[in-house]
Design goal:
The chain contains 17 helices and 14 strands. The chain is α/β, with parallel strands linked by helices and 437 residues long. Keywords: Metal-binding, Zinc, Zinc-finger.
Length: 437
């Protein structure tokens, strides 16, 4: 099994988490030709279309399953949320902490995804564990990922859900494409022969036409999935356009991009970074340096495959990985000055702020051009406030990123709300007080 296939096995889709698709093969009851899915007797969260699928998934499911079972026996973890969304959120966070204690480690992103998105009533926030014996959650017959615990609660929620059910179904259509073995991580092989960049086109539609792929616009979900990965190199290109003059950009032979706080999102999209080379055809070597605590191992200069044309012209892509904070990497012997530092969906103000603070200080001290993105306007605004508190010179603050992903994702801690990768961007470089001196 390839590393990509292993990653797909670890991460569960919304339908798998909802218990309406097999946790191993992704098939629904209808697709598998069965009347109902088998539920894991221990954790009661995983569902399978056959004993064979249950056995095949066991290596990925076992440890988390045991931890969930122990949590079920911890009565204090299942206090009533009293129909309050805020209490439901607090309880989930508390439960994840308890699961971490049982596992003797932090939950992986995959485990967090499962727990945060577990089925619950959209009105009273009860999950299956909270329900009375023989009572079950009732799924929406169309999207199959939104639930209520009773017909009465569905009557209260139906009008709101009817307005959003189509978006849920778009999200699920995108997931079907993403979880295919040959997931489209498309990067066009056409070069920008006329060296027209910068500037970039005005939007995704014009971009696909420019890159001679306008036929993609006829396939909405496929196109949305592609924007989810191409958002990374396009966001980088948009930042380079802001920080460098045209002549400078086209004179760079060896480009170095540092990704701070890198995780699986960037790793699974590695192929698409070649688009930077296709838009900047003078580049001979593109060196991606991924720095983050979620990197599984250290790797120095791993060569990546290039398209036939880049290979023929002896162009190279190289990826290095460092499982550490950026400020620790910056004092290592492997550090070299980048042309740009990017951070995708960083969550500066709400996740690991104390770890980000020395990294931001390091970036400001080195006067490096930086582009950070956020999931939402609210997050981006708070991130900018924090950057300004740390004396960063903000050049573009909390502005909508026209190269954000168009693939909707369900917000796990808010009812019926969606987010998009790289929705807002913030550009900064150096310190404000440097201009005053």
């Amino acid at each position: 099994m390839t590393s990509r296939e292993e990653e797909l096995k670890k991460r569960k889709t919304y339908l798998q988490i909802a218990g309406t698709a097999c946790s191993c093969c992704h098939k629904s009851c209808k697709e598998a030709g069965v009347t109902s899915l088998l539920r894991c007797a221990r954790c009661k969260m995983a569902h399978y279309c056959s004993k064979e699928c249950q056995k095949a998934d066991f290596q990925f499911h076992k440890l988390f399953c045991l931890a969930i079972n122990e949590l079920y026996n911890t009565e204090e973890a299942w206090y009533s949320c009293k129909g309050m969304e805020s209490e439901w959120n607090k309880r989930k966070i508390y439960q994840m902490q308890l699961l971490g204690f049982v596992l003797e480690r932090e939950l992986t992103n995959y485990e967090r995804h499962v727990w945060l998105n577990q089925p619950k009533c959209q009105i009273c926030f009860k999950c299956p564990k909270d329900l009375k014996k023989l009572q079950t959650l009732i799924p929406c017959p169309n999207c199959q990922v939104v639930f209520c615990c009773s017909s009465d609660h569905w009557e209260k929620h139906r009008s709101k859900h009817n307005d959003l059910c189509a978006t849920y179904q778009i999200m699920l259509d995108c997931e079907k494409i993403r979880y295919q073995p040959d997931q489209p991580l498309w990067a066009p092989e056409e070069f920008d022969e006329n060296k027209s960049y910068p500037p970039l086109p005005r939007d995704w539609n014009e971009y696909f036409k420019w890159r001679k792929a306008s036929q993609l616009l006829q396939h909405d979900s496929y196109c949305r999935v592609i924007t989810n990965t191409l958002s990374l190199p396009l966001t980088i290109l948009a930042a380079l356009e802001r920080f460098y003059e045209r002549d400078k950009l086209h004179s760079i032979d060896d480009m170095v991009i540092h990704i701070a706080g890198a995780n699986q999102y960037e790793l699974l999209a590695l192929m698409t970074f070649e688009e930077i080379m296709h838009v900047l055809p003078n580049i001979k070597t593109l060196h991606l340096v991924m720095v983050g605590l979620e990197m599984s191992s250290m790797n120095h200069g791993l060569p990546l495959q290039c398209c036939p044309r880049c290979t023929k012209e002896n162009r190279q892509r190289v990826c290095s990985m460092y499982p550490m904070t950026y400020h620790d990497f910056a004092i290592s012997l492997d550090y070299s000055q980048p042309h740009l530092v990017v951070g995708f969906n960083t969550g500066l103000y709400e996740d690991d702020t104390e770890l980000w603070k020395p990294t931001i200080k390091c970036l400001l001290d080195k006067n490096l051009p930086c582009s950070f993105t956020s999931y939402s306007k609210e997050e981006a605004t708070e991130d900018v406030k924090l950057l300004k508190e740390w004396s960063a010179k903000v050049l573009v603050g909390a502005k909508e990123n026209k190269w954000r992903s168009n693939m909707p994702l369900a917000e796990p801690q808010e009812v019926d709300k969606f987010y998009y990768n790289n929705y807002y961007r913030t550009l900064f470089q150096g310190r404000v007080n440097k201009e005053k001196n």
